[in-house]
Amino acid sequence: EVQLVQSGAEVKKPGESLRISCKVSGYNFANYWISWVRQMPGKGLEWMGLMDPTDSNAKYSPSFQGHITISTAKSSNTAYLQWSSLEASDTAMYFCARHNLISGYDYWGQGTLVTVSS
Amino acid sequence: DIQMTQSPSTLSASVGDRVIITCRASQSISSWLAWYQQKPGKAPKLLISKAFILESGVPSRFSGSGSGTDFTLTISSLQPDDFATYYCQQYDAYSGTFGQGTKVEIK
Description:
The structure holds two protein chains of two kinds.
Chain A: E1 3-6, E2 10-12, E3 18-25, E4 33-39, E5 45-52, E6 57-60, E7 69-73, E8 78-83, E9 92-100, E10 104-108, E11 112-116
Chain B: E1 4-7, E2 10-13, E3 19-25, E4 33-38, E5 45-49, E6 53-54, E7 62-67, E8 70-75, E9 85-90, E10 102-106
Parallel strand pairs in B: 2-10
Antiparallel strand pairs in B: 1-3, 3-8, 4-5, 4-9, 5-6, 7-8, 9-10
């Protein structure tokens, strides 16, 4: 059974760093890209970026380029989304998803709620 | 980057109604278009991929059509479980832009 299990909710202060995770199981991690999607409170889905686990090549949405870092660890079948300096506007639910080149985002994590507040 | 424009943003309908949601891409994406359903507090659920392929387990009242830049999601007879928010997404060109979403509300 394919599963993407994300790390738990986080409460941080502006300026702090954060890394959230997405651990996958049930398929060969190297065979599918992993994408991250933001959903701010009461708003729609925003594509943030993706990574190919085979070569660690990442592509970012222009809206997020320079503010986030996506990485993967093949040894642990885990993808990461990282901020070096959080802002209050980063408060949102973050989803990881398996990026299937044929059928889109066929499996999703349960979401990680990040709250940034002073 | 490819932009996706979805309409309407909100739709009020009754059980049994036929519902149509449209999605337009800023450039041709062939058939690399997916539709998702999201309910409050849940992750999105893939309904349709490659513009018209119904995912396993998705009721046949859902259908998708279109290619190039213009796409539609049709719900032939709206059921109580269908009241949710729907998103289109292009997954061409090494990216995955979403439309703004359509909230289907009870009339």
